[in-house]
Specification:
- The structure holds three protein chains of three kinds.
- Chain A is α/β, with parallel strands linked by helices.
- Chain A folds into two domains: 171 residues, 3-Layer(aba) Sandwich (Rossmann fold), CATH 3.40.50.300; 79 residues, no CATH class.
- Chain A is built from ten helices and ten strands.
- Chain A has a six-stranded mixed beta sheet, with helices on both faces. Chain A has a four-stranded antiparallel beta sheet with strand order 2-1-4-5, covered by helices on one side.
- The longest helix of chain A is centred in the middle third of the chain and has 21 residues.
- Chain A is globular and about 60 Å long.
- By secondary structure, chain B is mostly helical.
- Chain B has one domain.
- A two-stranded antiparallel sheet of chain B has the order 1-2.
- In chain B, helix 1 packs across helix 9, helix 5 packs antiparallel against helix 8 and helix 9 crosses helix 10.
- The longest helix of chain B is centred in the N-terminal third of the chain and has 32 residues.
- Chain C is built from 16 helices and two strands.
- In chain C, strands 1-2 form a two-stranded antiparallel ribbon.
- The radius of gyration of chain C is 24 Å and the shape is globular.
- In chain C, 45% of the residues are buried.
- Classes of the chains: A alpha/beta, B mainly alpha, C mainly alpha.
């Protein structure tokens, strides 16, 4: 099967520090892939490189929309989003002065067009677009199970709901690949279980591929079809959960007994 | 182009650059610590010049010898500028330390406006003649057509200030605390550094160099007014950005580059748009190298 | 004990400020007659003033601290509540509307002229409010765009005989073009650079207008700029003034309408998002530079149009009308009134322009007061007199 995202030999330096050291990674359509590793291994930096917040020092990032190859290196984050990669943040970054619905509506920004003239004259096209955004955003909230908070300010939501709202907001950009940065961080077991279901649902119903960074090994092992392990910026292993579980390098690097839980 | 004219312009640019450097240091140090453009910094420099003028006039009229007047007036200017710098931080910036950047910036502009008009109302809107504090040294006479002894004095003083500042930052306890605070405020405070004190110290040190710059330029040009801090402040800021804001050697280098550019531009091309030049320079730097000559582009934390 | 402590602190503050202001406030050197004037009374004033002000200062700071702890949801001021209650808002608006319509007929021409100036500043304030209040960009050289508009009309009229009504949009477009040219390189950078660059731009425009005699006629300016025409009908001075008054009123209403529309639009939401979190906004597909540039250009457009109206009102312009002070006054109206708040900016502009008009003695203290107002507002009431309450989208199924 052809990959939808391919990262080749990616390296990222900060001054003298090599945060990512020639890492390869590829994701196929509809796959759930996990990126794991100890704290400070360079996982979030990896996300930031792919989503355009940093430009990698060397290496290539390719996506294949409609079979055509496109290179992502050096594109601005908003362009990367438009190309169909959406992300969430490890330290929640919601728009705090906006309501839940408005947060998701911002997610629709990339797929809508109304400009200044549209805003001032508010013609039929703009009105229709606004209606569409609202309808779509509400639909997403229903899917994620946040519809009861629709008019609530995002900042007033419980922690787990804020993480889910980040996912909802990312989905509003119509991505083919969703990058989740520690989606279960700070969640209780019940919430994590719901998250597990939610991620599967997103993949199964929408066919959206998922790349996730996660420390919760139970979640990683149950969800992912492929796992990449990084340590000190280097990829030390890749494979199915089964292979990773039994990989001596990985066990030595950091997993150890955590995996047997 | 004859060589002597070139040398004159070169040294003239160096003198200009020295003054900019003395002011730019304050900008860059404050920015390095609290990431705020201290708009009122130019006013501190202006107040230094005014205090120097007032005190030196009083002392001269009291019949003090010239050397004593220079030393005492200089000290008064430095002490007062430092006190103003300290007070400004306490009033206009400290209450806003956790506020959005926009708030602190507006407050800084307010402070600049306030101080300018405070001096305007309490003193005068006219230009005041400033006595030349530096005599023409006899031994320097053969070279004075290239660089006057006053200009020489400016260069020497700047050099001494730079050396002292470097020693302060490199080797003293407060200097180390400043460096630590500018790298990571939270971490520094966890390590027992009193961040409030460090910030105050930064304002005081920056104000002191600005005051020295204020007296030197006033005695060189020969007149001052309440508005002098504005343009000088802006130019020094441009110099700081040019060198890489937050970087002390950068501020000095940037100041010299700006000084030379202005000097050669006015010397060879035209002096009509002298003041415009710095701004055009600023825009050009921001487009092509926003982190400045010596500044490192910092990766945003996500 | 605490009262004693407070008094001790105030005495210290008082002593400190007496020391601090000593050379500037007390000594005045006359370099011509070589004499010194000792103004000790000033020291007394500073001492007493600092004593009480420092008490007030600490009291207000403490109250602010306590206020922060409390829930702020019921912190709406009376004005805001009045604005949001339909049954008060509608009659209120009607009264204001009728008063405005009748204004030039009730009051003298002199008063009407002052009101026109004030309303031009209302337009300027609202325009700057798009940039600062909605998009969170600090612009310090706003008067430069005002100048671009005014000179566009004056020069187009001088050379090509173009009339007011055609010049109005052209002035706006020219100002917007300048805004885009300036904003494009700078907007991708941090906000403080924008402040300084626009400040520099303001000075450049003024210096160019002063020095480039062939183009702008230098400091002597341009005279005999025609007032707006009305289908070629000849009008008396009086009628023209009333006519301009209504033009400005319409411009104000149009501005309010546009800002309201913008606030509740895709672009307006993007501005709010960018103010909340730039990185998340970009990750949602918002083009940071482009979105900010739009606000910047729009703000410039309004300054340009206000400039055209200004030129037609005064019939004479020179660079002295477009200095940094004008920029600061406009900034002050926005900050004092309330960033983002339409009612606030209108109130702020009217207050700041009309008050000094009617209190001439206060004139020399105007700028120092503005400076103090900027600082105090930021510390104690960053939302301004009438704080902006963002209307959040309410979902209706």
């Amino acid at each position: 099967m052809k990959p939808i995202l391919e990262v080749q030999n990616m390296t990222m330096d900060f001054g003298g520090l090599r945060a990512i050291d020639s890492v390869d990674l590829s994701i196929e359509k509809g796959q759930i892939v996990a990126l794991i590793g100890p704290n400070g291994a360079g996982k979030t930096t990896f996300f930031n490189c792919i989503t355009g917040i940093y430009t990698p020092t060397s290496g290539d990032i390719y996506i294949y929309p409609r079979g055509k190859e496109e290179r992502l290196n050096g594109l601005k984050p908003n362009i990367v989003t438009k190309k169909g990669l959406a992300r969430t943040f490890q330290n929640i970054r919601l728009f705090t002065s906006m309501t839940v619905l408005e947060n998701v509506m911002i997610g629709c920004h990339a797929i809508t067009k109304a400009g200044i003239m549209g805003a001032i004259f508010r013609g039929a096209a703009t009105k229709a677009e606004e209606r569409l955004i609202v309808k779509k955003s509400y639909g997403i909230l229903e899917k994620i199970g946040l519809e009861k908070y629709v008019d609530e300010l995002a900042i007033n939501l419980p922690y787990g709901a804020q993480r889910r709202l980040e996912i909802a907001r990312a989905l509003a950009t119509d991505p083919f690949l969703l990058l989740l940065d520690e989606p279960a961080a700070g969640m209780n077991p019940q919430e994590t279980m719901e998250l597990d279901e939610l991620i599967l649902k997103i993949r199964n119903r929408e066919g959206i591929s998922i790349l996730l960074i996660e420390h919760d090994m139970k979640l990683v092992m149950s969800l992912s079809e492929k796992i990449y392990v990084v340590d000190y910026g280097k990829k030390i292993a890749e494979g199915t959960p089964e292979e990773i579980r039994n990989n001596p390098v990985v066990i030595k690097a950091y997993l150890g007994e955590e995996i047997d839980e | 182009m004859d060589f002597e004219y070139f040398t004159q312009l070169f040294l003239g640019g160096l003198t200009r650059g020295s003054i900019y450097a003395l002011i730019a240091l304050g900008y860059t140090m404050v920015y390095g610590i609290i990431e705020l453009i201290n708009f009122a910094h130019g006013e501190i420099y202006m107040i230094g010049a005014f205090t120097g003028l007032i005190i030196s006039s009083v002392l001269t009229m009291m019949g003090m010898p010239t050397l004593a007047v220079i030393v005492l007036a200089g000290m008064a200017a430095i002490i007062y500028s430092c006190s103003y710098g300290y007070t400004i931080e306490k009033i206009a910036y400290k209450p806003l330390r956790n506020a959005p950047r926009l708030s602190a910036l507006i407050s800084a502009i307010g402070m600049s406006l306030f101080l300018q008009n405070y001096v305007l109302l309490a003193q005068t809107s006219d230009f005041l003649p400033f006595p030349s504090l530096v005599p023409n040294f006899a031994f320097w006479e053969p070279y004075s057509h290239i660089i006057s002894s006053a200009e020489l004095m400016i260069l020497l003083t700047t050099l001494i200030v730079m050396i002292l500042l470097t020693l302060l930052i490199k080797f003293t306890k407060i200097g180390k605390a400043m460096r630590a605070t500018s790298q990571d405020k939270v971490m520094a405070s966890l390590l027992g550094i009193n961040v409030d004190q460090v910030i105050s110290a930064t304002f005081v040190v920056g104000s002191a160099t600005a005051a020295i710059g204020g007296i030197l330029i006033a005695s060189h040009i020969g007149q001052i007014n309440f508005y002098m801090g504005f343009i000088a402040g802006i130019k020094a800021f441009v110099a700081a950005v040019l060198g890489g804001i937050g970087s002390i050697p950068g501020a000095v280098l940037g100041s010299f580059v700006l000084g030379w550019t202005e000097s050669f531009f006015t010397g060879y091309i035209s002096s009509d748009y002298e003041d415009v030049f710095a701004f055009i320079f600023l825009v050009v730097i921001l487009i092509f190298r926003p982190s400045g000559i010596l500044g490192r582009s910092q990766a945003q934390k996500v | 004990m605490t009262a004693q402590n407070e008094i001790k602190k105030s005495i210290l503050a008082s002593l400190w400020f007496m020391f601090l202001t000593f050379p500037i406030m007390v000594i005045k050197v006359n370099t011509v007659t070589n004499s010194i004037e000792w103004r000790w009374h000033n020291m007394a004033i500073v001492g007493i003033g600092a004593f009480f002000l420092s008490m007030l200062w600490r009291y207000l700071l403490k109250r602010k601290e306590e206020g922060r702890k409390k829930d702020q949801s019921d912190g709406l001021s009376i004005v805001q509540r009045l604005l949001h209650e339909r049954r008060f808002a509608l009659p209120g608006l009607m009264i204001i509307g009728i008063f405005t319509l009748l204004f030039p007929h009730i009051f003298s021409m002199y008063q009407t002229n002052i009101m026109i100036s004030a309303l031009i500043f209302v337009v300027l304030g609202l325009g700057l409010n798009i940039v600062i209040g909605l998009a969170g960009l600090l612009v310090l050289g706003y008067a430069a765009f005002f100048a671009v508009g005014a000179y566009s009309y004056a020069l187009l009229n001088l050379h090509y005989g173009i009339g007011f009504w055609i010049a109005l949009p052209i002035g706006g477009i020219f100002a917007a073009l300048f805004g885009i040219l300036l904003g494009y390189p700078v907007l991708r950078l941090r906000g403080d650079y924008l402040a300084i660059v626009t400040l520099g731009f303001g000075e450049i425009i003024r210096l160019v207008l002063e020095n480039w005699n062939e183009f702008s006629f230098g400091p002597s300016g341009i005279k005999n700029i025609p007032k707006p025409g009305f289908f070629g009908i000849e009008m008396s001075m009086h009628t023209t003034t009333i006519y301009i008054f209504y033009i400005v009123v319409v411009l104000v209403i149009f501005t309010i309408f546009v800002i309201n529309r913008l606030k509740n639009s895709r672009i307006g939401r993007a501005w709010v998002a960018l103010k909340d979190d730039e990185i998340a906004s970009q990750a949602m597909g918002i083009d940071k530079a482009k979105t900010k540039l739009r606000a910047f250009a729009l703000g410039a457009t309004w300054a340009g149009m206000a400039g055209v109206v200004f030129a037609s009102k005064t019939t004479f312009i020179n660079p002295a009308s477009f200095t940094l002070w004008e920029s600061v006054i406009i900034l002050c109206t926005v900050v004092l009134g309330g960033m983002g708040s339409i009612a606030g900016v209108i109130a702020g502009a009217l207050l700041l322009i009309l008050l000094p008009e009617y209190m001439r003695d206060f004139g020399q203290f105007r700028m120092i007061t503005f400076g103090a107002v900027l600082i105090l507002m930021m510390i104690f009431r960053p939302g301004g007199m009438i704080e902006d309450v963002r209307k959040t989208y309410k979902f209706e199924k």
